[in-house]
Design goal:
about 300 residues, alpha/beta, Alpha-Beta Plaits, 6-stranded mixed β-sheet, 11 helices, disordered C terminus, binds adenosine-5'-triphosphate, ABC-2 type transport system ATP-binding protein, transport, nucleotide-binding, AAA+_ATPase
Length: about 300
Amino acid sequence: MTKQYGGGVGVADLSFAVRPGAVTGFLGPNGAGKSTTIKLMLGLVRGAGRTTFTGRSYLELADPLRTVGVLVDPGAVHPSRSAAGHLRMVAAGGGLPIRRVHEALSLVGLDSVADKAVGRFSLGMRQRLGLATALLGDPEYLILDEPANGLDPDGVRWIRRFLRELAGQGRTVLASSHLLAEMAQLADDLVVIGGGRLISAGSLAEFVDQHTRSVVVVRGPETARLLVALGRNGLRVWQGTTEELVVDTDNTELVARVAAQTGLPVRELFLRRSDLEQAYLAATAHTVQHRGEPS
Ligand SMILES: Nc1ncnc2c1ncn2[C@@H]1O[C@H](COP(=O)(O)OP(=O)(O)OP(=O)(O)O)[C@@H](O)[C@H]1O
């Protein structure tokens, strides 16, 4: 997919596959092009490229609500309409049986507020209603833009279980977020974009392997001499203080052997895996236009 806006790149030459039976996290910093991609996938904006669901583009689907469930803008519901009223309208418009309204509300835990005006809903309740709308046609595919947005920790746990269950039923679930920590809890696979381009696509475990690294931390009173000895053995020291060296290797045994051979005292020696959040920021840093305060 490619989408050029007047002001510059929205999405550039982006291609990826999403598999059934798994939750795929669609991750990228603010402005990376996630919303643009989702809109392109659904034919909501014009651009180059094609996304297929069981072989057809969204606009070619005979029965779109029964094929692809979409959560894009959960705020776009008339505030005086009740949750059930909103779903009845969508069901009627999409030729779905009215009984699905209560089934969908109960799936997301909103049955007790079915007749309450949506204007009085919290952000989390709106997200749930957005999900109920996506699930109304019992679709095989789900495309969810920031489904965990506005949810409290309980809500995030709920949505994690919920998306896993949907994927466990064999559905194809694509959920976007700009927060890696959120995605790391939610997703089996990750598609990571930055500046409208693909940075990585694969399993979450592969992403962790590729973008985090292990280092050996060694602490003791004579780090200056140890640093020289490590260097002589081809080991690179990343960071060092008078008390601690961070060695660019995962070979604890080799670091211990060098220390022992040189007879230098060591107080502590251990393997440390770098932080995934830092790795994600590093992987996408060159693509970020504006990094605001963390929200
Ligand atoms: N209608 C538009 N007109 C012009 N530029 C746009 C438009 N929509 C998006 N863009 C630009 O395209 C790029 C991608 O934006 P997009 O909203 O798709 O990113 P995003 O990853 O969804 O970001 P966020 O996490 O903030 O929602 C940004 O540089 C944005 O400014």
